UniProtKB/TrEMBL annotation:
It is an enzyme of class 2 (transferase). The keyword Repeat does not apply. One of its GO terms (biological process) is protein ubiquitination. Residues 93-164 form the UBR-type domain. It catalyses: S-ubiquitinyl-[E2 ubiquitin-conjugating enzyme]-L-cysteine + [acceptor protein]-L-lysine = [E2 ubiquitin-conjugating enzyme]-L-cysteine + N(6)-ubiquitinyl-[acceptor protein]-L-lysine. GO terms for cellular component: cytoplasm; ubiquitin ligase complex. One of its GO terms (molecular function) is ubiquitin protein ligase activity. The keyword Thylakoid does not apply. Residues 921-946 are annotated as: Disordered. Pfam families: PRT6_C (PF18995), WHD_UBR1 (PF22960), zf-UBR (PF02207). Gene3D superfamilies: 2.10.110.30, E3 ubiquitin-protein ligase. This is E3 ubiquitin-protein ligase.
Length: 1667
């Protein structure tokens, strides 16, 4: 079989591309020749056997099929031909790079014509837009870079690279005639072939010319449609061919043009017969792979050639209806449909314009859309109610057509041709037809009696409305640009509205309303009884156009052309009014039985996404109607629709009625007549567009300071996704930068508060009351009165000028008067304070209006606005009723209206001001009597008033006090931890002061050795957080414990690839200097009784078990693993550390006379060790035959190996020693707990050493002094951890600890019993020191020779220090640079040089020559510093000697002070000299080690000192660099696929393919995602990642714990963008990144996760292990 394949291959390989090409060049019938070739070879190459080998196929296809074509095309070897083509090519300006999934794309908010215009990263970086306001997104794939497209950019269309390209010329100029002919021939044949074969539909027949003779024909009809294998083969090649064509045209723009020409050439069958047409039209029949291949080819050919792009656009537009219909029926996503190319075509302004005028594209799109929504009710309106699943599916798909319409309209025309006008209006007609089908859709009837059975469908209608919102706005924008178009559109719209309303009054009874002598005829209609719809797009469009009439001044210029006389104001306002009534009634709770669908509709009606073309336009329509009719009539109709007519027309009626409705009607009155919309929308008030947006922002910020993103969300976006906010925000707000957390906020400028309008029309009820509260508070803070009067408004434009008259209309005055009357007689009526407040606001508005009116008065003007006069007159209708002014005066002193007093006062003040103004201009006198009454009245009541106020003030104070204390209690509850910490800090700061107070003389403090400073131990009394009892920490008392969390750590690791392979057999005695896996202990510092903790833990455990059974939910902690939360601060813990008195005092006999020197001590120790070994061997061979050895044994003086020391600790302390020791062992080695295991004490020492090292590292990194800066919880933790580690040997097997000591010491002082110990290059000296010092008492306790324990400590310390110096010198990589010492050799330098020379000698001169002692001494000092600092911490916590004040600050002579504290000579080399005899031997033995030699010969690596501190990886400043990096990242497992969730490990910089099945692996028998798997190797279970696509930091710990954390990237507004939704440029915030790094270095990631999960329970439910 194998050989057969090879044989075929050989015969195929013999085919020569050149020869075939030559044959073709001479052929008379080229197509036939080529087809013969294809027919013969393709089935052979693509004969898919059982084992497809795509690479082999590709290779053969290139050689046999494509090769000849390339030869033919070039007329020579393509290896020469193509580069020539490329060189001769003058590439076009266009970049055209097709985006990969996840690739970053950039759009310029200043210059892009629309948001679909994007740049690739390379072009962006070389463009001017870098400096502009840009937006960054990640591409979903498809689409291409618009660099070089002059129509896509208002400015800077070229990047630096594409600017250089030549201007547009005929690309064919650069090709020879021959080449053009050949290219044309071969392209025509091959493109035709590809199209034919891809669109071939017959199953067992090949296209003519491709039949092969030797294939065995399967002639019998197949039941199962099995495609002929040859067809499959040809189709595979067809795809290959299209890709090839795409590549070939990349060489030359000329070739590209030829291909376009071939593709668009009409075939013999006329219309739609070009190859491009054929492909497009069979799009939905092709499989996905084929589609993307030819779409790509279209993009790189037709869309890249300016001439053919236009021709292609025409083909596309002509086929539009068919393509869209195919797409709607198709079941693949839009990105796989040719219809998706519309965005590439329609967004080009010139093409869009051309297609509208020449192909009537607007109409086509709208009609196509309508065709797909055939389901209508009897009135011809859309009906979504009874949609089947299929219809709903189609509806979703057909929505993309609206997007197309948006693309077409997005660029507005600058000049109009008659054609464009005509075609636009034709499209407008079609659009009106569409809106007509929406006018009144989904009507609702109030449900009475019982609830609706099924929530009616409402979403479809709103989806349609929402999608159309921008289109509707853009239609208006277009109309605004041309007067003729506007007039025509206005007429058309009115006509359609009339059609909609025909039959509107059918069957309705006319009724007559009358108030205050005014009467009006209307119909009887009740919103709560009849059908009402929230969808009125036609009315709303008309309202929009009406405003434009004013704005463009068409209304004044050509009134004769407008059908203004045909307008019937009552008809115009009818439906919008019903809609507002509906909202009011829903808010009043009258429609409860209609369920949630209605509530949702009302919500969206007001929502920022819809309101522009819904609520806003209804208000405008009411204003429009009002401006054209008698305000009294308007008001009566309005009252009638709100069911309030009776109340105001018959004065005594108002005893029982709907307060809410009155409130609402008043609110709308405020809004409609003088509020916002009419002044602040351009065209109605005399303002420009920015005033409107300023207004919105001012009112948003009146509620509270807001972040940029919050503001953006609260403001409407236009079709370009812009709110226009940036241009005005500076004027109204100040920006406050964020701190380490939180985000930047905008605060309202103080001078803008005067523009605050309490009844701003976009406020929801909740927003309104929040804003009111905030503004009143602000006023109180500024010691102003709390009146919130209406702001002064800009004047109205002439078309709407008559609006203000409503404020002084009789009916309005009647309403005001009635409500004030209720307030005066406040008992019998169902009035409310908010009602009064609104009336006061209305009065205030009228006064402002009048004041302005008077101030702007010029000679000719007549005062028409006389509100003040009218409110001074007593009422007429109910005889003898007082004037409005008089009632206000009464109310000013009403005790029940305290809150409104300031406002009433403001009104009266303004009233008087206006009176003065009038007097000055002496236009008309105001009755003076009223004013006098006011002043008299106020004097009378003055006294009583003051008393009453004092009483109110007292009550208020009391209430506030009560509230305060309640709040405080709350605060403490919520911030328990914070409080505790503050308290503790207070406590420790006092205890620390004691610590440093000179209980011992400060002259020279020594931490260890015979000269150790003596400290008198202070009693330590602590309080249990659980039972609150105090207890002293003593050897024999009940144990006190600290909550602690033990975890494995790789934070200090210098080799992340190293993991403990077999924990059961792992020997942790020696820590490698790579520190690849340590055990870290941390604590929150909270103290409990051991038994209190035990009880607490048992309770937690029991509770958890019950909870898990019942609810099956997890918690943030894993009880089965011994985890619990600190009962006080809820910090994650998994064990407890016992608190101990200083442990050394117990065994230390402080007799310092006549202590042995290092050599003597070592001799004694060696003898003791030897004795121990002999004894142990003897024990093992218990038969006692080794008598001669026993003879040899000469016990050193005072050494009593049979002595068993007594354990002085209380039982409970001993128990806790074991508990904590076992916990460290269990976590550190990841094994089952076993308190008997001999490695338990080693793990305890290791954790002590490792924890000290991490803390030293953090302090160094932060450039902080060693002491005096640790938070007290860390200080407490280190004290108890060190004491614990020093005491632990008392609960372990004595002989085991002795054995550990012997082996540890043997690594420095070799003996024959211990071999295979690591060489000194492979030992972390600090770990060695801690283990030696802490295991030494196990031997020392049997030594009664009178040597002090401190002496041993000192000798061990000196010995390890010397070993470390040698280690440093051996691994030092300092090069001797030119910088030589300034001073002549100091003593230290000379000594260092001597020592170095000795080392050189002992290592056989493998060490490189050094002549400068200065360099050596410098590297020793730098290298040993961390060790000395760690040792200082260690001995401080071990022996409790206070720290000299010099080490508590950073200073120049740190080194000397450390040496002094540690009982070391300043010249460390002296240690060698003092003990030269024994040291020479030892150094020699260290140097002669085989591993050391291998290192010096360069055969292995070793750590050099000082070890650099581990940091998180460097992140780029610009976030898009990361996105780009991630978009180039391929899933490592699934050969070349893009990763969906590329995730960056911040610890080591590895990019991972997260959250995906492809990269799941098995870990401890469970499937886990790439991140979890990575944490096990890289972070010992803890991981910090950046999810690049989401811009989110991910913390993981173990398999079940995780949380998301704010990324260290911020935009210019100080906000993060989790999920990359906003797309603002993001830059690295170094401080925030440092904070994350610190969390990591402090081992607080797990704790952080715990807190996050406690705060947000949903985090617990996430399957973190799958990330
Ligand atoms: Zn580009
Ligand atoms: Zn470019
Ligand atoms: Zn720009
Ligand atoms: Zn207790
Ligand atoms: Zn705690
Ligand atoms: Zn990593
Ligand atoms: Zn993967």
């Amino acid at each position: 079989m194998e050989t057969e394949v090879q044989a075929i291959d050989r015969s195929l390989l013999d085919c020569s591309a050149e020869e075939v090409a030559v044959k073709w060049l001479q052929a008379t019938d080229l197509p036939k020749e080529v087809y013969l070739h294809l027919a013969y070879y393709i089935p052979k190459i693509y004969s898919r056997g059982p084992n497809p080998a795509p690479q082999r196929e590709d290779m053969l296809a290139q050689h046999i099929l494509l090769g000849p074509m390339e030869w033919y095309l070039c007329g020579e070897d393509p290896a020469f031909g193509f580069p020539k083509l490329e060189q001769a090519n003058k590439p076009s300006h266009l970049c055209g790079r097709v985006f990969k999934v996840g690739e970053p794309t950039y759009s310029c908010r200043d210059c892009a014509v629309d948001p679909t215009c994007v740049l690739c990263m390379e072009c962006f970086l070389g463009s001017i837009h870098r400096e502009h306001r840009y937006r960054m997104t990640t591409s979903g794939g498809g689409g291409f870079c618009d660099c070089g497209d002059t129509e896509a950019w208002k400015e800077g269309p070229y990047c630096q690279k594409h600017e250089l390209s030549s201007a547009e010329t005929d690309p064919l100029m650069h090709l020879s005639e021959d080449m053009i002919a050949r290219a044309y021939n071969i392209f025509a044949i091959m493109f035709q072939y590809a199209v034919d074969i891809l669109t071939w539909e017959k199953e067992n027949e090949l296209p003519p010319g491709l039949e092969t003779l030797n294939t065995s024909r399967q002639t019998k009809p197949l039941k199962v449609q099995v495609m002929h294998s040859s067809i499959v083969a040809h189709q595979s090649f067809g795809l290959k061919l299209l890709t090839w064509l795409g590549n070939i045209i990349g060489y030359s723009d000329g070739l590209r043009r030829i291909l376009c020409q071939v593709g668009l050439q009409e075939g013999p069958d006329g219309e739609n017969s070009s190859l491009v047409d054929k492909l497009m039209l069979s799009d939905s029949k092709l499989w996905k792979g084929a589609r993307s291949v030819y779409h790509q080819l279209f993009m790189s050919s037709l869309l890249m050639d300016l001439k053919y792009k236009k021709l292609f656009a025409i083909r596309f537009a002509r086929n539009y209806e068919r393509l869209q219909s195919d797409y709607v029926k198709d079941d693949h996503d839009r990105e796989f449909s040719i219809a998706d190319l519309s965005v590439q075509i329609f967004t080009v302004p010139s093409l869009a314009r051309m297609l509208i005028t020449e192909e009537n594209l607007m109409t086509t799109i709208i009609k196509t859309f309508m065709d797909h929504l055939r389901h209508r009710d009897i009135q011809g309106r859309f009906q979504f109610e009874r949609y089947t699943a299929l219809q709903a599916f189609k509806f979703r798909r057909v929505q993309s057509l609206i997007l197309d319409l948006k693309y077409v309209l997005i660029t507005k025309p600058t000049d109009w041709s008659n054609d464009l006008r005509q075609k636009f209006l034709e499209g407008f007609d079609a659009f009106l037809e569409l809106l007509k089908c929406m006018q009144g859709m989904d009507p609702i009837t109030r449900q009475v009696g019982q609830h609706i059975e099924m929530e009616p469908e409402w979403e479809a209608a709103f989806t349609l409305q929402m999608k159309l919102t921008h289109v509707i706005s853009m239609m208006q924008d277009w109309c605004a640009l041309d007067e003729k178009v506007l007039i025509e559109a206005y007429k058309k719209c009115l006509t359609v509205l009339m059609q909609c309303h025909s039959g509107f009054t059918d069957g309705e009874q006319p009724i007559v309303l009358s108030i205050c002598g005014h009467s009006v005829e209307t119909i009887r209609y009740c919103v709560s009884q009849e059908k009402v719809s929230i969808h009125l797009p036609v009315s709303r469009l008309l309202a929009g156009l009406h405003v434009l009439l004013s704005k463009s001044e068409v209304a004044y210029k050509f009134p004769e052309l407008l059908p203004l006389s045909e307008l019937s104001p009552p008809l115009l306002i009818e439906h919008p009014l019903r809609c507002l009534v509906l909202c009011a009634q829903v808010h009043a709770g009258m429609w409860r039985r209609n369920g949630f669908s209605l509530v949702n509709q009302i919500y969206y009606y007001h929502n920022v996404k819809c309101r522009r073309e819904m609520f806003d336009k209804d208000i405008i329509m009411l204003q429009t109607g009002l401006s054209m009719m008698d305000p009294n009539h308007f008001l009566m109709i309005m009252l009638s629709r709100f069911d309030l007519y009776q109340i105001f027309s018959t004065p005594d009626y108002g005893k029982r009625f709907n307060t809410e409705n009155t409130n609402k009607v008043l609110l709308y009155l405020v809004i409609i007549f003088n509020g916002e919309k009419n002044r602040f929308s351009p065209g109605m008030g005399q303002v420009n567009a920015t005033d409107e947006i300023k207004r919105e922002i001012i009112h948003q910020l009146s509620i509270r300071p807001m972040a940029h993103s919050e503001l953006v969300k609260a403001l409407p976006e236009n079709e370009n996704k812009e709110t226009g906010m940036e241009s005005v925000i500076e004027a109204v707000a100040c920006f406050k930068k964020p701190g380490l957390t939180g985000r930047g906020l905008y605060e309202l400028k103080p001078e803008c508060t005067k523009d605050f309008n309490l009844y701003f029309y976009h406020f929801s009820r909740a927003e309104q009351s929040k804003a009111e509260e905030a503004q009143r508070k602000l006023k109180r803070q500024n010691r102003e009165d709390t009146a919130l009067p209406p702001p002064v408004l800009p004047p109205l434009s002439p078309l709407f000028a008559s609006l203000i008259n409503i404020l002084q209309s009789d009916v309005m005055l009647c309403i005001m008067g009635t409500i004030l009357q209720w307030a005066v007689e406040h008992n019998g009526y169902a009035w409310s304070e908010s009602m009064l407040q609104r009336v006061l606001h209305l009065i205030g508005m009228a006064l402002q209006e009048e004041k302005q009116h008077l101030e702007n008065l010029n000679e000719e003007n007549v005062v028409t606005f006389t509100f003040t006069q009218k409110i001074s007159k007593p009422g007429e209708a109910p005889s003898n009723s007082p004037s409005i002014l008089a009632m206000l005066e009464t109310l000013q002193n009403a005790p029940h209206l305290e809150v409104h007093k300031d406002m009433i006062r403001w009104i009266l003040k303004t009233f008087n001001a206006i009176k003065k103004l009038r007097e000055n201009s002496s236009t008309s006198p105001v009755p003076e009597t009223e004013g006098n009454i006011i002043e008299e009245g106020s004097r009378d009541k003055d006294k009583a008033e003051r008393k009453r106020k004092a009483e109110i003030a007292r009550l208020r104070r009391e209430k506030i006090m009560a509230q305060m204390s309640e709040m405080q209690r709350h605060f403490i509850d919520e911030n328990k931890e914070l409080f505790q910490q503050t308290l503790e800090e207070l406590a420790t700061s006092t205890s620390r002061a004691l610590d440093n107070s000179p209980t011992v003389s400060d002259t020279k403090l020594t931490a260890l050795g015979p000269k150790q400073t003596r400290v008198t131990e202070q009693r330590q009394v602590v309080t249990c957080i659980l039972c609150q009892e105090e207890q002293e920490v003593k050897v024999d008392s009940r144990a006190m414990v600290l909550a602690a969390f033990v975890q494995r750590s790789t934070v200090l690791s210098k080799n992340r690839n190293k993991v403990i392979q077999d924990p059961e057999k792992y020997d942790p005695l020696f820590m490698h200097p790579e520190l690849s896996c340590g055990t870290h202990t941390g604590s929150c510092g909270h103290i409990m009784h051991a038994h209190c903790w035990q009880r607490y833990f048992d309770a937690v455990q029991a509770k958890e078990q019950r909870r898990q059974q019942r609810l099956r939910v997890h918690t943030s902690y894993d009880v089965e693993n011994g985890e619990f939360l600190c009962p006080l601060c809820e910090c994650l813990s998994n064990t407890v550390i016992p608190l101990l008195p200083p442990p050394r005092g117990l065994f230390n006999r402080l007799d310092f006379s006549d202590q042995p020197n290092l050599a003597q001590w070592m001799r004694t120790i060696s003898q003791q060790i030897k004795a121990l070994y002999i004894l142990r061997e003897e024990e093992n061979n218990s038969c006692g035959s080794n008598s001669e050895k026993m003879d040899e044994l000469q016990l050193p003086k005072g050494f009593r190996p049979d002595f068993q020391p007594k354990n002085l600790y209380s039982e409970s302390i001993k128990e806790m020693l074991t508990t904590f020791g076992t916990a460290i062992y269990k976590v550190g080695l990841k094994v089952h707990p076993n308190e008997e295991d001999l490695r338990v004490p080693i793990m305890c020492w290791g954790s002590c050493a490792y924890t000290i090292q991490t803390i030293e590292q953090i302090l160094t990194d932060e450039n902080k002094p060693l002491f005096g800066n640790l938070p007290c919880r860390q200080d407490d933790c280190l004290t108890s951890l060190t004491r614990f580690a020093a005491a632990h040997w008392t609960v372990s097997s004595l002989s085991a600890v002795q054995g550990h000591f012997c082996r540890l010491l043997a690594s420095l002082v070799p003996n024959e019993k211990n071999e295979n110990l690591p060489c000194i290059l492979d030992i972390d000296m600090f770990h060695l020191l801690v283990s030696l010092v802490l295991s030494f008492p196990a031997i020392y306790c049997q030594d009664f020779s009178g040597v002090s324990l401190g002496t041993g400590d000192l000798h061990i310390f000196h010995l390890v220090t010397m070993a470390h110096i040698v280690q440093i010198l051996l691994t030092s990589s300092t090069e001797e640079n030119g910088m030589d010492q300034e001073n002549p050799n100091s003593e230290e330098e000379a000594a260092a040089l001597t020592l170095y020379k000795f080392l050189c000698q002992r290592t056989g001169s493998a060490l490189k020559e050094m002549s400068s002692g200065w360099h050596l001494w410098r590297s020793i000092k730098a290298g040993i510093m961390p060790f000395l600092r760690c040792s200082a911490l260690f001995f401080h916590y071990l022996n409790g000697v206070p720290v000299p004040s010099e080490i508590q600050v950073t200073g120049a002579s740190q080194f000397e002070h450390l040496c002094s504290y540690l009982s070391l000579p300043n010249n460390l080399i002296c240690l060698f000299q003092e003990n030269s005899k024994i040291m020479n031997t030892l150094v020699e033995s260290w140097c002669s080690n085989n591993e050391v030699n291998r290192y010096l010969e360069g055969k292995r690596q070793a750590i050099s000192y000082a070890r650099e501190s581990n940091k998180l990886i460097d992140l780029p400043d610009d976030y898009s660099c990361l996105i780009n990096q991630a978009s180039n990242f391929l899933c490592p497992k699934s050969g070349g696929d893009k990763s969906r969730a590329p995730t960056l490990c911040l610890v080591c910089g590895t990019m991972l393919c997260s959250q995906s099945y492809c990269c799941q692996t098995e870990l401890e028998g469970e499937d886990v995602g790439a991140c979890t798997a990575h944490t096990y190797a890289c972070g010992s279970g803890v991981g910090i990642f950046l999810r690049v696509r989401e811009c989110q930091v991910l913390f993981l710990a173990g398999k079940t714990k995780g949380c998301f954390y704010a990324p260290p990237y911020l935009d210019d507004y100080g906000e993060t963008d989790q999920g990359l939704r906003r797309g603002n440029p993001l830059h690295l915030c170094k401080e925030r990144f440092k904070k994350i790094q610190k969390l990591w270095q402090q081992h607080s990631i797990t704790e952080e996760i715990g807190h996050a999960q406690e705060a947000n329970q949903t985090l617990v439910g996430i399957d973190w292990q799958h990330l």
